[in-house]
Amino acid sequence: MIVDDSAVARAVLARMISGNPAFEIVDQVAGAQEALDSLARVSVDVILLDIEMPGRNGIAALPELIEKSQGARILIVSALAEEGAATTVEALTLGAADTLAKPGRNAFGGRFSEILCERLMRLGTAGAAVAPGMPRQPQPLEALVPVSEPRSDLGPIQCVAIGASTGGLHAITEFFRALPDSFDAPILITQHLPEVFMPFFAQQLRGSTGRKAVVAREGMTIERGVLHIAPGNAHLCVERHGARVVVRLSRQRVESRCLPSVDPMFDSVAEVYGDAAVGIVLSGMGRDGCIGADKLAATGAELLVQNIDSSVVWGMPGSIAKAGIATAVLPPAAIATHLGKRRASR
C-alpha cells in the first residue's frame, strides 16, 4: 500500500514497484485515514508511508496503521527521513521498520528505484500477509529452534549488552518500558543507525526511560544506571583499567561489515564481565552479533533473544537461536521482566 498526499509521488512509486513481478500494489491513498479505512478491506505486507500529509500525519497514524494491518512492515518514504533525524528516530521508535529519504520530484528513478525495491523485498519476506484474525507468521517457533525459559539459578548482573537493527528501536522501547526502575546495571546498546541519528536516539531514550543515556566516547567510564550507546561510526567495546571499566571505540573491519557492530561489543563484554554479563539481541536483519554471542555464551553468560512473533525481522536474533546458544527466546518485555528478577550486582 502506498500512502502519500502527492499524486505525482504515488504514481512514480507505483510505477517503480509495478515493474517488479514480486510485488502487488493493493491500494494507493492520499492520507492516513484513507489508509486505515482501506485496511478493513485489504491485507498488506508493507506500507510505504509519507510523514507530512494534510490532516493526520504519518507519525501520528503509525501505531494504528500497524495495529489495523496486523503487523505490516511500514517503510517511511519521506524527505524528512533525511532532513529530520529526530523525526526519523521517533518513527522507528513507534514501530516503523525502516526509512528511506524521498528524492526531489526530478530525482526519482535510477539508484533510488533499486534501493526501494531492495528494501521492499527484505521487508516483504520478513512476514507474509494472511487472512484477518490469523497470525502473520504462522510457522511455529518450536519447528525452528528449541524454546527454553530463562534460568533462575544465575548470579547478579554486572553489565547488559543489547544489539539490534531493523525494528530494534521499537523493541528497545518495549524492553525499557518493562524494565524495573530499580535495575541499575550499566547497559551498552549497539543499534544500527547512521552517526547523525545517535544524539537523537540518546535523547529519545532519556525521555522515554527516565535514565541517563549518552553516546559513548573513547575512555568514558562505564557507570551504573547509565545507557551507553555506540556512536554511528565505531564499535562500542569495553576494557578494564584497574577498578574501572571504560569505553574503547574500535573501527576494525568485522565479518558482518556493520559499523557499529554487535560482535566486537559482545567480544569485549565477554572478556571483561564473563558470566556476570547478559547479552540481548533484538529485531534486526542479517547475522551481526552471532559470532560475539558465541564467545559470550562460552563464558556462561546469559543470552536472551527476541522471539519471531514480536520481531520486525528475525535475522539477528534468529541466527543466535538457530545456533543453539540462546538461553531463551522471548518478547522484549518478557526479557526485561526476567532481568528484573535477577538483581544487578554492586
Automatic annotation (TrEMBL):
Active site per UniProt: S165, H192, D288
GO-annotated molecular function: methyltransferase activity; phosphorelay response regulator activity; protein-glutamate methylesterase activity
A biological process term (GO) from this entry: chemotaxis
Gene label: cheB
Keywords linked to the UniProt accession: Chemotaxis, Hydrolase, Methyltransferase, Phosphoprotein, Transferase
Pfam families: CheB_methylest, Response_reg
Entry-linked SMART domains: REC (SM00448)
EC number: 3.1.1.61
Enzyme class (EC, first level): hydrolase
Modified residues (4-aspartylphosphate): D50
Name the UniProt record assigns to this protein: protein-glutamate methylesterase
Record's keyword annotation contains Zinc: no
Annotated Gene3D superfamilies: 3.40.50.2300, Methylesterase CheB, C-terminal domain
GO CC annotations on file: cytoplasm
Catalytic reaction list: [protein]-L-glutamate 5-O-methyl ester + H2O = L-glutamyl-[protein] + methanol + H(+)
Species assigned in the record: Sphingomonas cavernae
Top-rank lineage group of the source organism: Bacteria
Residue intervals of the CheB-type methylesterase domain: 150-339
Domain Response regulatory: 1-117
